[in-house]
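Progress note, sequence design subtask.
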């Protein structure tokens, strides 16, 4: 069973930047894809970005393309989400997620993100 711990959330002004981190433990990190999802008040949880087990492929929601970058450091068992040019609509609780299937090609290509962190709040103010 994988354990995921997010950090790096906070309050930032419109146009600002934040970097989220997610530390994983409990299984061989480098075999599994990782993703970020978010949930705004009154809305369903939505996909933000993911990165395959090797880091060779990434996918992004249209709403964050060009502004967010997902990356991973397999030596540190950590995945990151760099968020730039933040908008008020980015305000949400951000969740780190781990693929339950090893060596998939990512979100929409066989990944099953079934393990979740506790979430970290990101608030963007004008």
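Output:
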């Amino acid at each position: 069973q994988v354990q995921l711990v997010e950090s790096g959330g906070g309050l930032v002004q419109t146009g600002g930047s934040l970097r989220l981190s997610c530390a994983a433990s409990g299984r061989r990190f480098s075999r599994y894809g990782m993703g970020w999802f978010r949930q705004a008040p009154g809305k369903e949880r939505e996909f933000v970005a993911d990165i395959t087990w090797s880091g060779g492929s990434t996918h992004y929601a249209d709403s964050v393309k060009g502004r967010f970058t997902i990356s991973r450091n397999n030596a540190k068992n950590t995945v990151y989400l760099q968020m730039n040019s933040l908008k008020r609509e980015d305000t949400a609780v951000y969740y780190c997620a781990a693929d339950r299937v090893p060596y998939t090609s990512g979100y929409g290509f066989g990944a099953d993100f079934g393990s979740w962190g506790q979430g970290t709040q990101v608030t963007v103010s004008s």
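The chain is about 0% helix and 55% strand. Work on this subtask will continue into the next period as scheduled.
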